[in-house]
Description:
single chain, mainly alpha, 0% strand, elongated
Amino acid sequence: xxxxxxxxDVVAWAQEQARLLRAGRFDALDIEHIAEEIEDVGKSExxxxxxxxxxxxxxLLKWQYQPERRGSSWTATINTQRERIARRLERTPSLKxxxxxxxxxxxxxxDARTDAxxxxxxxxxxxxxxxxxxIAEILNPEWMPE
Length: 146
């Protein structure tokens, strides 16, 4: 490597690694850190999907548990998250596997319950311990919990 290290400046390091790759200087590459960064890209995509799902689920919980407060802001957030989740799944089809992962769902649902609790004042334990809705319902633009 030309001197920039992964630990001291990851952006400069990444640019340097890209230059080395394009130049065919494979012997000079920081293979271990490149592999870590590639794995992190996938993890980042999964985190974004989980974050969007948690926001969507929290708003669906609020919709169901506080019908008197339903409004255009909640509807807009629900619609936006559904659209962005659909777009993310379309652009990165391998993320669909996350939707079948019980651990991923437990994290997303736990985050949704926590967010809904903070935003509504309703106790955490008042929300179901496990998501009561099917993924097809959650992502269906025509469906809302009642």
